[in-house]
Amino acid sequence: MSGGPLEFLALAALRREQAAAIGATLTGMDPWRTLGYQAETLARGLESTHPDLIRYLAARDGEPQGLVVVRHPWLRGAYIELFAVLPPAQGRGLGRVALELIESRYHRRTANLWLLVSGFNNGARCFYEKQGFHLVGVIADLVVAGQDEVLMRKVIRPAVGVP
Ligand SMILES: CC(C)(COP(=O)(O)OP(=O)(O)OC[C@H]1O[C@@H](n2cnc3c(N)ncnc32)[C@H](O)[C@@H]1OP(=O)(O)O)[C@@H](O)C(=O)NCCC(=O)NCCS
């Protein structure tokens, strides 16, 4: 990757123009394209605030490179609700760096990282397995009828004894 250093901004919400631009980009990419997400729906979600949600925006020279949305707390851990490296930045280590950042941000306060990956998204599943996530189960028809979602977990701190 060329240009300036990679920055990660932890944001409560994206600015409206940024949310619209990223929403439009995601609808042209899998898994959102195959699942039939609308750009407006994604953009509305990204520009809204929620006390349990943080958006980590990866940027270089002010240009978005990727986005991770984390919900915490969730099921004795943190749930990665959205994970996207934008196409020009894919395959250059950003996904791995972003997951390492998320793990380092949450490891003191959480025992687990969770996420869902679409059943057809073999590439992302392979990526997550390389980063230490394991399959928990398959959930049919969760987002769209006829499509499975795969629940994955990375144990940060195993449960011990009495909670
Ligand atoms: C899947 C995704 C997050 C990976 O991020 P990335 O920045 O492209 O991946 P990295 O360059 O950090 O790769 C890290 C490792 O995962 C592997 N990997 C990455 N994408 C892979 C793929 N599609 N298939 C197989 N392995 C893959 C790399 O080979 C690399 O392995 P190594 O450590 O042995 O060299 C990214 O490509 C992406 O956003 N894709 C589209 C959206 C998506 O599917 N998001 C997940 C939704 S749940």
Q: Would you kindly provide a written description of the structure presented here, covering whatever features stand out?
A:
This protein is an alpha+beta fold. It has a single domain (6-155), classed as 3-Layer(aba) Sandwich (Aminopeptidase). Helix content is 29%, strand content 33%. It has a seven-stranded mixed β-sheet, covered by helices on one side. A hairpin with a 7-residue loop joins strand 6 and strand 7. Helix 1 packs antiparallel against helix 3. The longest helix is centred in the middle third of the chain and has 13 residues, at 94-106. The site of coenzyme A has 19 residues, from strand 4, helix 4 and helix 5.
For the structure shown, list the relevant keywords.
seven-stranded mixed β-sheet, Aminopeptidase, alpha+beta, 7 strands
Layout of helices and strands:
Blueprint lengths: L5 E6 L4 H12 L4 H4 L3 H9 L5 E8 L2 E9 L5 E9 L8 H13 L5 E7 L3 H9 L3 E7 L7 E8 L8
Parallel strand pairs: 4-5
Antiparallel strand pairs: 1-2, 2-3, 3-4, 5-7, 6-7
The structure holds coenzyme A.
